[in-house]
Design goal:
Number of strands: 12
Bound molecules: NADP nicotinamide-adenine-dinucleotide phosphate
Helix content: 25-40%
Strand content: 15-25%
Structural class: alpha/beta
Radius of gyration: 19 Å
Order of helices and strands: EHEHEHEHEHEHEHEEEEHEH
Low-confidence stretches: none
């Protein structure tokens, strides 16, 4: 029998983190050794989540939790804490899986440098859902052939960060295929420039935050007299993110430096 992968899960009581924690409780090859969440600090995670198989302690900060040796640190808190936690985990010599959205390309450049300096892997996935991985791949195929596209990111009204991690990651990946070529350059817009959205890694991104939405990402490619829309819609549970996150935990130790998107490990 192989030794289970020891995981520290930051954000373990959250919407996404708690679903992942429950799934880890049902696996035999991954073991939660520490968790991070402020309000449940001092309790066991099992006590906080009503899952007796989760016996690990909950700490108020990643710094305290990382005092417990672990192999993989999973970051699932909030954008304002994520980078600090990731760098602290790398400092401790653990590999890192990032589910939290909101980190910029500049943040990731810093994370990449820290990971390479310590020969550790960081796998950052703005969205762990399989259908999003497919959206990314299909969009990259389309961008090779179609030079004009825009991204629309839909989410619930109380999502604090914009654009979504999914939209950021998609824009970043498309920038590696080519730069989009809008017919009217964005800085030559007549009227409020903001109506054309934000330029993220070269793509125009429009974020909609309204009640009634969960999470959707859409990329529209336009050509004369034809267009292609590729869209992903999440349901209301965090279940679609679990299998991808488990795969990331299992595979991240085979990586060095920063890798973005689950498909970095999907075919390996
Ligand atoms: N990659 C993906 O597939 C995916 C899927 C879903 C969500 N996400 C992203 O994951 C992140 C979390 O989303 P969520 O909906 O699960 O959020 P959530 O329900 O608000 O959960 C956040 C968790 O982090 C903890 N936390 C927040 N701030 C903290 C701090 N400063 N120190 C320690 N713990 C802290 C919270 O506990 P306390 O408040 O008690 O500290 C809670 O356990 C977001 O960025 C979201 O966009 C990504």
């Amino acid at each position: 029998m192989t030794t289970p992968i020891r995981v520290c899960l930051a954000g373990a009581t959250g919407w996404a983190g708690s679903e992942l924690a429950r799934a880890i409780a049902a696996t035999s090859d991954i073991s939660l050794v520490a968790a991070v969440a402020r309000r449940a600090a001092g309790r066991t995670l099992g006590d906080a989540l009503g899952e007796p198989r989760l016996t690990c302690p909950v700490f108020a900060s990643a710094a305290e939790a990382l005092a417990h040796p672990c192999d993989v640190f999973v970051e699932y808190t909030k954008p304002d804490t994520a980078k600090k936690n990731i760098l602290a985990a790398l400092e401790r010599g653990t590999h890192v899986v990032v589910g939290t959205s909101g980190l910029t390309d500049a943040d990731y450049a810093e994370v990449d440098a820290a990971a390479r300096a310590r020969q550790r892997g960081v796998l950052a996935c703005g969205n762990f859902a399989l259908t999003v991985v497919l959206l990314q791949r299909f969009a990259e195929m389309a961008a090779k052939l179609i030079p004009q596209w825009e991204i629309i990111d839909y989410a619930h009204d109380d999502k604090v960060d914009a654009p979504s991690g999914t939209a950021r990651e998609l824009a970043s990946r498309l920038s590696k295929v080519r730069a989009p070529e809008p017919t009217v350059p964005i800085d030559q817009t007549v009227g409020p420039r903001e109506t054309r959205g934000a330029t993220v890694s070269g793509s125009q991104v429009h974020s909609i935050r309204l009640p009634g939405f969960v999470i959707s990402a859409e990329v529209i490619f336009g050509m004369p007299d034809q267009k292609l829309t590729i869209r992903h819609d999440s349901g209301s549970s965090a279940r679609p993110y679990v299998d991808g996150a488990l795969l990331a935990i299992r595979k991240v130790s085979g990586l060095v430096g920063l890798h973005r998107g689950l498909d970095s490990v999907l075919d390996s």
